[in-house]
Amino acid sequence: MAMTKSQILDYMAKKTGLTKKQAGLFINEFVKLAYKEAKKSFVIPGLGKLVLVQRKARQGRNPKTGEVITIPAKKVVKFRVAKQAKDAILVNKA
User: Fold this and answer.
1) φ/ψ of residue 33, rounded to 5
2) 50 and 92 share a domain?
3) How many domains does the chain have?
């Protein structure tokens, strides 16, 4: 089960010696910075990076009717996981 925001703040406060409020402020500011800088790509060393990618227009199908439709070009945000994170998480590669 995933950690809640409160559990994350509690963990970070204990590890850094900050209060939960200070840890929360740090995390909120870090997230705001990531949102702001994602347009240029935002790297979190050892974890990965946020990048803005331009998707091309393409043909698709309406699954209900089978009608061919054009899906317009758009920008999307992607997170690319760093090799270091993959190696740490996927320790038992078969």
Assistant:
1) -65, -40
2) yes
3) 2
